Amino acid sequence: MSAEKLTFKTTLLLAKKTATGVQVPDEIVEKLGVGKKPPVKVMINDYTYPSTIAVMDGVFMLPVSADVREKAKVQAGETIEVTLQLDTEPREVALPADFEQLLEANQAAKAFFQTLSNSNKKRFVIPIEQAKTDETRNKRIKKAIADLEQQKKV
Questions:
Q1: Which of 71, 81, 99, 152 lies 20 to 30 Å from 140, alpha-carbon distance?
Q2: Distances in Å between the alpha carbon of 103 and those of 36, 93, 113, 148, 151?
Q3: Which fold has domain 6-86?
Q4: Coil, strand or helix: which one is 117?
Q5: CA dist 33 to 25, 44, 72, 148, Å?
Q6: Helices 134-149 and 97-105 meet at what angle, rounded to 10?
């Protein structure tokens, strides 16, 4: 396993209408030394975020969300420099206190939530955090608990 930082230049690709990402060279993935889906810390310009390299259509890819593009000040079509480092820290999703409290009160929902990947957990948490009013936030929390109780992924 490599703790070194590995840097490469690439083009920020646009797929379909909004999906963006970068292709990671095979030799970079090999140097990371932990298989085909390594968890990494990604640095673009001065912005760093956690991600996981995925295989799509036979090539290694890293997603670059709209949020990341905005914070890193990049856009699709640009040539960018990407630095990767193996991420060995445990990944936790921080839960809003009001959501966590209702989750604790519903063992079926909590049990299913705990089986989800961090990405799938975030699909429940982010809309709650982005609610502009208490009313919307409460509706989203109640819907999340109901979906989790029925073992539905968002």
A1: 71
A2: 34, 14, 9, 9, 13
A3: Elongation Factor Tu (Ef-tu); domain 3 (2.40.30)
A4: coil
A5: 13, 22, 27, 35
A6: 30
